[in-house]
Structures are given as structure tokens and as C-alpha cells.
Amino acid sequence: MYKLFFLLLVFAIIHGGINGIQKDSKLTQVVLLGTGTPTADPERSGPSLAIIVNNTSYVVDCGPGVVRRAGAAAAKYGIPSLKPAQLTRLFITHLHSDHTIGYPDFILTPAVLRRNGSLEVYGPKGLQSMTNYLLKAYREDINTRLNGLEHGQPASYKVNVHEITQGVIYRDSNIVITAFNVHHGSWPQPFGYRFETKDKTIVVSGDCTYDDNLIRNAMNCDILIHEVYSSEGFSKLSPTDQAYHSVFHTSSQQLAAIANKVKPKLLILTHQLLFGSTKESVLQEIKRLYNGEVAYGNDLDAF
Predict the structure, then answer these.
(1) Distance from C-alpha of 186 to C-alpha of 200, rounded to nearest angstrom
(2) What is the mean pLDDT of each run of 10 residues along the chain (303 residues)?
(3) What's the rounded Cα separation, in Å, for the pair 218 and 226?
(4) Rounded CA gap, 85 and 26, in Å?
(5) Per-residue CA distances from 140 to 129, 133, 161 (Å)
(6) Strand, coil or helix: what is 197?
């Protein structure tokens, strides 16, 4: 029995790794850094994920705990580009607090650790103003670290903000990233992202409700990472809360309808709003209407 387990373990490491991480660093990987919501769940950090290809990381959103989760993933999976000092590219879906509370952490912690160059940040209108105020708020800290006995690196504290519109917003030799508008209640300029690499197409919904634009941009992707709320739990909410969530977020039935049109090879659930329901219930709600592969995302899951 133990010999069989050892052989299976070796086979998994050689042929694709454990929990989805591939041995070939040139292949595209996804790591969920945080799968939480505004609820202060100690098991789930705020919304964030990383797409890694050819030893380069592209991070989406920066909820609470993002830098430490990235460090944990770097150690767990042996991904150097998720070490804090290597965090140089950030893509923000929208400026809700649960998606951006980790932004000062993302700016400053890697800088203290001598980030390898400046930070490039992409996101909606208002991101430049947010960045300016954060840098102003931490001005004394930055000044002391740069001009005091630490002798910090000025380039590590430099933040280049790119306020985006719908369309291709980034490309390099590894990846092409397209932003597309989604509907997230009354929030201005919320985005989803499509990441195209040599071996995978990955779509990240951000926060949104059912959206035809998302469906168009996600068609036939390899991985769709999408938020969801439990329809069972939703039915028990007050009318006020139902009115809010129905226009800001995506129900399990709506997500099943989206997946039936998009037909991803893998659907990953994140930002799960259970409202007193359970993981099993959400999965059943989706699988009753959609027969594709579904994964319930947890912090530090890798695909």
C-alpha cells in the first residue's frame, strides 16, 4: 500500500505536479491567493489571484492579506515570481474596498524588501487618485526608508498607474491581457479580464452579475474564474439584501447559464457568498444545471 502511494506521488510530481501545478515553468498556472468577500472569514483572505507563466506573475486584485498569501504560495509551490520582492504587475477589477485594501501592502511591503523594479498597476478610472493619496499617507514612512539607515531603493517605491478602458491593455512575450466591462450594480467601470498565453486562455469575472459582455469575452476559454452566491442562501435574505445582491453579484443558477454558453474546460468558483448555505449546496445548485467540470476555490488552490 505504501509503495503504491509513493509511486503515485512520484508520478504526480513528474507528470504535472500536485494540486495542478506543472513542473514546466513555461506553462500557465493559476493560484488563488484570496477567495474571500467583505465577510471577515479567517480562512479566506480578500479577493486576489495570480496567473503565472514563464516565471512571471500577473496578479489580479489585492484584497486583505494578498502579499502574505503570495509569499505562502511561493513557498508552497516553488514559484519565485510570487515572492514579495518580485510582485511587479497588478491588475485591479474595480475599486471596492475588499478588492483594494491590500493595495498599500502591495505597494509598500515588496518595496521594503527591495522590489525588483517599479510597480505597474492597471485598473479603472480613480486608481491614480487612490494611489496618490496612499503615497501621500505613507510619505513619512517612505522618506525614512529611502533617506534613513535602510538606504532603500527609490525604484522599488515607484508606482506607474495605467487607468484603462475596454480592450487590450497589456502584452508582453508571455501574455496578452484584455479588459472588458461587466455589470456590478451601480459601481462605475468594473472590469473583467481575459488572459491569453501560448497554452491557455483564462477569464476572470471580477465582481459582477449575469453579463452578456463577459460571455462574449469568455467564449471557449480554458478556465473561467467567476464569483457566485448561493441561491438557497439568497432566498433567506431580507428584501433589502436581495435587492442589493441581485444587481451586484451572480447567483448559482445565473452562473450555470453563463457556463453553459461559455463552455470553459474548467469553472472555478471564487468570492463565494453562501448566506448561511454550504459549499456542497452551491456546487449542487450549479451541477443541476451545468455538467462541466467545476472547482470550489479556496485560498492557495492551484490549477
Answers:
(1) 32
(2) 43 43 78 96 96 97 97 97 97 98 98 95 98 98 95 96 98 98 94 97 97 96 98 94 94 98 98 96 97 98 98
(3) 11
(4) 21
(5) 19, 13, 21
(6) coil
